[in-house]
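Data follows
____________
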Amino acid sequence: MKRITPYIKSLFRYNILKKKIPLNVSISLTNKCQLSCVYCRIPQRKQKEMTTKEIIQIINDLSKNETQRISLNGGEPLLHKDLDIIINKCKEKNIFTSLTTNGLLVSQKIKSLKKLDLLIISLDGNKNIQDSIRGKSFDKIIKGIKKARENNIVVWISTVLSNKNFFNVDFLLKKAEELDFYVSFQIVHHIDTISGKTNKLLLTREKYQKLINRLLSYKKINKRIVNSKTVLKYLHNWPDYRTKIINNASGKIKNYIPCKAGQLFCHIDTNGDVYPCTQLIGKTKTKNALKIGFKKAFDSIQKQQCSCPSTDYNEYNFLFSLNYESIVNAIRLTK
């Protein structure tokens, strides 16, 4: 509960004073990754990467601007040579710190990871499914999850639901009970059409809705599902799962929730560019935190009128709109 209180205070100020506050900020530490997941383009990116000194300066800036959570990602953040220094700085500033990883190096990096508040590992299904989607990784991931739980690290897995694994939900929830972790389900929305990948991984609208209804049913009895019922229902009403972003979304989506990207959360790319979110990288004008400072870069972001099927961002949107069920769900997950 003590983690939620600062959020509530800041959100009331945001709603009353309309002051932008970067409550949750994700930082890409590197574009490097050992895997080549079928729906990811990040390892192909060639952006310049911030130095450790520059990352530390940004963390200092975030602390001064009321940031409550920093999410470290990539690429594969465990490949960053100074990861321990970066995590230490986040914790020195008393900021809730999570890290998203492909899981291959968890066992080797456990000393650094023990300082995290939350470790998120990508896992899409059983051994055959995982290895076909993300490359040979299943055995190391399971070993890493066990190692993390042995060290009392809170573990979520991030599962992208596609036509390759939608039938494996029960396996993942059973494994969650067995190994004591939680599951955050996503739908495919990162397909890289630039490199020739298509929407072949997508389920039909009917199948996605049927699957989401299953998750809603499971949610009543299974405490391992991270997603709130509110967001699952929102995704159930998504008009077209082939559409990554819907612009001018008000009136186009049932029970539309205004996006708080660039108002209450944002993303800092590997080169220091500040974006409303990862969905808009390369699709909107941006300022660089290293050149003009984080606050000026963040304040320059315009209010967003779009919506997307990202479960993470929609959890933020409903939580930051003080949706009761989302708040209760968040409190349950932080106990």
Q: What stands out?
A: The domain at 5-334 is CATH 3.20.20.70 (TIM Barrel). Strands lie at 24-28, 69-73, 96-101, 118-122, 155-161, 182-187, 265-268, 273-275, 287-288. The chain has a mean pLDDT of 91.
